[in-house]
Automatic annotation (TrEMBL):
InterPro entries (alphabetical): Biofilm_reg_signaling, EAL_dom, EAL_sf, GGDEF_dom, Nucleotide_cyclase, Rev_trsase/Diguanyl_cyclase
PANTHER family: BIOFILM ARCHITECTURE MAINTENANCE PROTEIN MBAA, DIGUANYLATE CYCLASE DGCP
Domain EAL positions: 323-576
Name of this chain's protein: Diguanylate cyclase (GGDEF)-like protein
UniProt xrefs under SMART domains: EAL (SM00052), GGDEF (SM00267)
Organism from which the protein derives: Actinoplanes italicus
NCBIfam families on file: GGDEF (TIGR00254)
UniProt-listed Pfam families: EAL, GGDEF
Gene3D superfamilies registered for this protein in UniProt: 3.30.70.270, EAL domain (3.20.20.450)
Domain GGDEF, chain residue ranges per copy: 183-314
Lineage, broadest ranks: Bacteria, Bacillati, Actinomycetota, Actinomycetes, Micromonosporales
Length: 578
């Protein structure tokens, strides 16, 4: 082979070996072979098919190739072309072909073509080997990554990434080990109070920061043998080694005191608290059951009010089961049309005339009679059903009030609103849509919100009430006087009415102290140009005292009990009291 062909072959070798995939190497081989041998057509054949072609359409060349060995090729637009082919591969894997017009390939050119084909075969073998090695390496890297991810998942399943505490899974494993011993073990179930308000107002990052600080304070209250864990959300658990319930109670109070102290979060002092349930077990107890008992006790503690400690008692299981059953029945009640509304008139104390009604929901549970609202409304608030129930009340009461107003156009309607509804960004739009659908003017409706709901997050409440005020509905603070901070916000809350809590007139004949408190509230309301409604008027003495103090309206059994919808028109026909 002469120097020129050796130089061309060297360049060919370098070009064909550079790609990392087979088709690119074949394409370069075809282009270089046709260029070096001055051929109009170049191709690589696999079996009896053209894989890559240069200078002619691949399908056209595929159809023009003669069957069997041939020295010439005829293509449309080209004179007869002289064919040169060379096989490549240890076994016949394919052929490198060129076809040119004019002189056929001489022996030296055929030798060069054969060398190119062999070079292409070596390059393809090398690419196949490198591809296999790369795939093997990628597979090993993938397996290593999967093993690492599995290890991380196992670790995360056993240790909370946010607090570093054991998770529920690891806590139950440790607890199960302790319960194989004969010594007693106590479990504390901790639920944070007011954590959601912090999370909603300061953001999730601040909430995560707070949980980390809570975990640190829990650790500080424990002995080395005790175990703290994050069970999920804002719930924690503590395992007190070799501890009976009586000895666990002081630890629980110590934890509550530690969590009452302010936390420095996002540059400000944040105050939360905790409710704790305690359960104790010995050998033979199931870990899940013991943790569940502590959870049941914690729920009772939370129900009794924030910052409480309750020790589990077996009777609590029956209560928890009844609560689960009540929850299931409550979910069914709305779809089954089991709710109904009664209406309690609002009486103008000066005249004894009813001017409006408050809608009061009642639930007749099939086979069990009426369920007091105090039993099912907090449960609905807790499980989120209160939003659907609240929408039903507003729609049903609104439709009824619209019918009454055809003959009593001055009649107004009061409807209670829950905290969950108030914090729903769509609530104002839902109210507007419902009132429009009922044909009830917004000015005829007053929404009542409890003082505790408004004071839980006053800034959010002010924003939500502003949206409602823009609709034109009236706003009232229900149970006024039961909170502790409302006076400082009262001027900023866009409300129209104060409903004085019945606790202030709980005595059949109010004392001088009772009257002094109510007089202060009435005078405050007058200064702020707010209506006053006193609740719980049960005796004539209370009625007379409230009228003399200047309260605008009253509600209570002495004035008028809650009545059926069909009795409402008659209540507006004449004064109910004199």
């Amino acid at each position: 082979m002469n120097h020129w062909s050796t130089h061309q072959l060297t360049e060919f070798f370098a070009a064909v070996c550079s790609p990392q995939d087979e088709r690119a190497a074949i394409t370069i081989a075809v282009e270089r072979a046709a260029e070096v041998l001055e051929a109009e057509v170049g191709a690589v054949l696999r079996g009896d098919r053209v894989e890559v072609a240069r200078g002619v359409d691949r399908d056209l060349l595929d159809g023009a190739l003669p069957a069997g060995p041939a020295s010439q090729l005829s293509l449309p637009g080209l004179e007869d072309l002289n064919i040169g082919t060379a096989r490549f591969g240890a076994e016949p894997r394919g052929s490198l072909m060129v076809a040119r017009a004019g002189d056929p390939l001489d022996p030296e050119e055929r030798q060069l073509l054969q060398a190119m084909a062999q070079t292409l075969g070596l390059a393809l073998d090398n690419i196949a080997l490198l591809t296999a090695e790369r795939r093997l390496r990628e597979e090993r890297e993938r397996e290593a990554a999967e093993r690492l991810a599995l290890v991380e998942a196992v670790r995360e399943a056993r240790h909370d990434s946010l607090t570093g505490l054991p998770t529920r899974v690891l806590f139950l494993e440790i607890l199960a080990g302790k319960l194989r011993l004969t010594v007693p073990t106590s479990v504390l179930f901790i639920d944070l109070d007011r954590f959601k308000a912090v999370n909603d107002s300061l953001g999730h990052r601040a909430g995560d920061d707070l949980l980390g600080h809570v975990a640190a304070r829990i650790r500080d209250c424990l002995r080395p043998a005790d175990v703290g864990a994050r069970i999920g959300g804002d719930e924690f658990a503590v395992l007190l080694d070799t501890t009976v319930a009586d000895d666990a109670v002081p630890v629980a109070w110590r934890l509550i005191e530690a969590l009452r102290r302010p936390f420095r979060i996002s540059g400000r002092d944040v105050f939360i608290g905790a409710s704790i349930g305690i359960a104790t077990g010995t050998a033979g107890f199931d870990a899940d059951d013991l943790l569940g008992n502590a959870d049941v006790a914690m729920y009772r503690a939370k129900k009794d009010g924030p910052g409480k400690v309750i020790v589990f008692e077996p009777a609590m299981h029956a209560e928890a089961l009844a609560r689960l059953t009540l929850t299931a029945d409550l979910r069914h009640a709305l779809a089954a049309d089991e709710f109904r509304l009664l209406y309690q008139p609002l009486i103008r104390l000066e005249t004894g005339v009813a001017t409006g009604v408050e809608a009061l929901i009642r639930w007749k549970r099939p086979g069990r009679g009426y369920v007091p609202p105090v039993e099912f409304l907090p449960l609905a608030e807790e499980n989120g059903m209160i939003a659907d129930i609240g929408r039903w009340v507003l729609r049903a009461a609104g439709e009824q009030a619209a019918r009454w107003r055809r003959t009593h156009p001055a009649l107004t309607l009061n409807v209670n609103v829950s905290g969950r509804q108030l914090t729903d960004p769509q609530f104002a739009a839902d109210v507007e849509q419902t009132l429009t659908g009922c044909g009830l003017p917004a000015g005829a409706v007053t929404l009542e919100l409890t003082e505790s709901v408004l004071m839980n997050d006053p800034r959010t409440a002010i924003a939500c009430l502003g949206d409602l005020r823009d609709l034109g509905v009236g706003l009232a603070i229900d149970d006024f006087g039961t909170g502790y901070s409302s006076l400082s916000y009262l001027q900023r809350l866009p409300v129209d009415e104060l409903k004085i809590d019945r606790a202030f007139i709980s005595r059949a004949e109010p004392t001088a102290a009772d009257l002094a408190v109510i007089r202060t509230v009435v005078e405050l309301a007058r200064t702020l140009k707010l209506r006053t409604v006193v609740e719980g008027v049960e005796t004539e003495e209370q009625h007379r005292a409230m009228r003399e103090l200047g309260c605008d309206y009253g509600q209570g059994y002495h004035l008028c009990r809650p009545i059926e919808p069909e009795s409402v028109p008659a209540a507006f026909a004449a004064p109910l009291v004199t």
